[in-house]
Amino acid sequence: MERTLTDVMLRRERVTSASGGEPVVHCEALVTETTSAPEFIDITEDVERIVADSGAGSGQATVFSGHTTAAIKVNENEPLLLQDLARIISQIAPVHGEYEHNDFSRRTVNMDEEECANGHAHCQHLFLSTSETIPIIDGRLALGQWQRIFLVELDRPRQRRVLVNVVGVR
Amino acid sequence: MERTLTDVMLRRERVTSASGGEPVVHCEALVTETTSAPEFIDITEDVERIVADSGAGSGQATVFSGHTTAAIKVNENEPLLLQDLARIISQIAPVHGEYEHNDFSRRTVNMDEEECANGHAHCQHLFLSTSETIPIIDGRLALGQWQRIFLVELDRPRQRRVLVNVVGVR
Amino acid sequence: MERTLTDVMLRRERVTSASGGEPVVHCEALVTETTSAPEFIDITEDVERIVADSGAGSGQATVFSGHTTAAIKVNENEPLLLQDLARIISQIAPVHGEYEHNDFSRRTVNMDEEECANGHAHCQHLFLSTSETIPIIDGRLALGQWQRIFLVELDRPRQRRVLVNVVGVR
Known about the structure:
The structure is a homotrimer.
Chain A: E1 10-19, E2 23-33, E3 39-42, H1 44-54, E4 58-65, E5 70-75, H2 79-92, H3 119-125, E6 131-137, E7 140-141, E8 148-153, E9 159-169
Antiparallel strand pairs in A: 2-9, 3-8, 4-6, 4-9, 5-8, 6-7
């Protein structure tokens, strides 16, 4: 079968199929204190443990950041690479750039007692993801060889809360 | 337990767990006429209402844009910040930049009667998301304090259709 | 009902609702050999076929790349546009740029026998998605008129594996 643009062939492989199983919905939070920005916190093992405890044999896990200045990303956990990623993120929207959101003389909306100038963190978040959804096969995350799940802190160090929401069947 | 890169501790908190409940799948569309670009339309309350009417106590809602030049994003609804985000989006792929997609003298594929030069909107969309998936806890979207769901218009004003697809248990 | 920023009206349309149906979870892999980078491989028809064979009448399909240097994106399949998208991707993180990840004199982690200098591909992936989740309505992907699903190769040609994970009800 021909593919557009390139004559790439695609081969289908059956992985798993469960029909009529007992539905499972299971949600836990991961709470952490971040220490800098941009910071990559590898939460893969913790997510894997929650998936195992959920009792779901197949389905999916959505890893969701409850924050507008902390993101979820899947990439490789290689320390030099994480330096590259941090540099690229900081270039898109530099911490010392000009942001209307940081103009507290004009801003009236969502002004918090601890409000900090964090326009750069919101703008960096625009290009990243609030969540990632990962298939569950045989009760485990179906991650590829190099894939790790990161919470990415973009703002100043603070407490962060990530939801791990499993939807599937036993 | 030590984390890579930083010695961040992660604490687990049980949120909700439902096993054996009655499965719920519920889908509605939100239809709107946009007015400019980039434009951020806050659809959070409408999505929240659909989730409430779905009857799902837990599970997740996927908010899906049916368009290649309108995106879904979760961020803060602060008017000055939305100006920052609009500026950043316009810088990635400027409306008056050069795009092969706009060369109607050479283009033969997907030529519509109302075809407009919108290469910039497709290129901006490359960095944004077609959908966002949000956990449902106790029949409500589990959004953090500042999180709001936006339909982001990148192209000329027109009718747009967003699907809100709930998958969970009663 | 008024919307923030613009007085946009949103109209709700019921699409589908299934309660108490038999749960379906179905997962297949699509395996392919890519040929260049950046390369867009349109996998829409193959995903559509897997959804049809899953037996799910409603729910959702998550299309998941098992790789840190190959992404999933939904956009239009117009050949000139794909040239624009490839150019923009190559500009974010150029193949001949400087990446710490490529410094094999210092790097000690995740060194593979076939290790290649691919820092650019990881950095490009930061802005793209590992997965996309698409609603299923009446047993079919609920894609808009111009939406096509692409596997995007960012690294050298190689074998790639995409999971299509359906969660829904019969």
